[in-house]
Amino acid sequence: MKTLLGSLIMSEKIITTEAKAKEAKLLIDKIINKAKKSKADSKLKVSTVRGLKNKIPSGAVDKLRGDFLNKFNKRKSGYTRVVKLPPRKSDSAKIAVIEFV
After folding, report:
1. How many Å apart are CA 5 and CA 11, to the nearest integer?
2. CA distance 79 to 54
3. Which of 47, 21, 24, 20 lies closest to 34, judged by CA?
4. Going by C-beta distance under 8 Å and a sequence separation of 6 or more, which residues neighbour residue 19?
């Protein structure tokens, strides 16, 4: 899940199974809220960055600390959307696209 979340932040859109997309949506909302709070409060910055590095790769943390969060200044939640796709032909698994709004 750590790699999936890192890939989502880095590419801003990924195709995965529906179950993984729904789980990633819950986790990424929490991660972005933590990053937004740490950006506003300088005392939380170091501890939040350490906590985020346990949940996502360091390259994704660097992108979150940059200008990426400016897109979500007016939003309180609902940073991602999950769009269902037709099932995969090889094993009929439910597929979905998860992307940032």
Report:
1. 10
2. 21
3. 47
4. 94
Q: Residue 62 — very low, low, confident or very high, per pLDDT cuts 50/70/90? A: confident
Name the residue type at position 88. R
In sequence order, the β-bridge partners of residue 15 are 97
3-state secondary structure (DSSP) of residue 96: strand
Cα dihedral 81/89/11/20 (nearest 10): 50
Answer yes or no: pTM beyond 0.90: no
Higher pLDDT, 52 or 80: 80
Contact 53, 62 (CB under 8 A): no
> In this structure, what token pair is assigned to residue 101?
């709004």
Whether residue 83 contacts residue 6, with contact meaning beta carbons closer than 8 Å, is answered with no
Interior CA angle at 37 toward 31 and 41, to 5°?
A: 145
Query: Distance (Å, rounded) from C-alpha 71 to C-alpha 6?
Result: 18
